[in-house]
């Protein structure tokens, strides 16, 4: 799992660059349809580690199922559905967030999310930076898996 330290370093860099409150990566289980938040920077607590959502549910499950980014401008006012359907937003007390799809080994298997504790405008620049970071994480994973250093399968 050598990419773990690379992922955490990239999350830290992204959080500092965007001055966001939280940056995290959720990954779909290799064999199942559950999605878990695996890596985080700026987390207020350890609750993110216990969050598991089904494919198509929550921010992470929706991004993975559609392959489309999701933007939350003012949680919980600007969401479709109930607040409990957004456990990462509740656990980390996020108000604004942007989540982009993450492909690992060519398959849509994860989500990169940045979030803010206060209402923040999600600009095109922010979206571009998050999507570029998602590409960087994909490249890191691919490079380290080709070298045989990942040690586990996503």
H-E order: HEEEHEHEEH
Strand content: 25-35%
Low-confidence parts, pLDDT < 50 over ≥5 residues? Answer: 149-154
How helix-rich are the residues, as a percent range? Answer: 25-40%
Give a written overview of the molecule.
- By secondary structure, the protein is α+β, with helices and mostly antiparallel strands.
- Helix content is 34%, strand content 26%.
- The chain has four helices and six strands.
- A six-stranded antiparallel sheet has the order 3-2-1-6-5-4, with helices on both faces.
- Helix 1 packs antiparallel against helix 4.
- It is globular and about 45 Å long.
Which helices and strands, and how do they pair?
Layout: H1 3-18, E1 22-28, E2 34-41, E3 52-54, H2 58-66, E4 70-72, H3 87-91, E5 96-104, E6 107-116, H4 124-146
Antiparallel strand pairs: 1-2, 1-6, 2-3, 4-5, 5-6
Helix pairs in contact: 1-4
Question: Could you write a compact summary of the structure shown?
Answer:
Helices cover 34% and strands 26% of the residues. The chain has 154 residues and is α+β, with helices and mostly antiparallel strands.
Descriptors:
4 helices, alpha+beta, 154 residues, 6-stranded antiparallel β-sheet
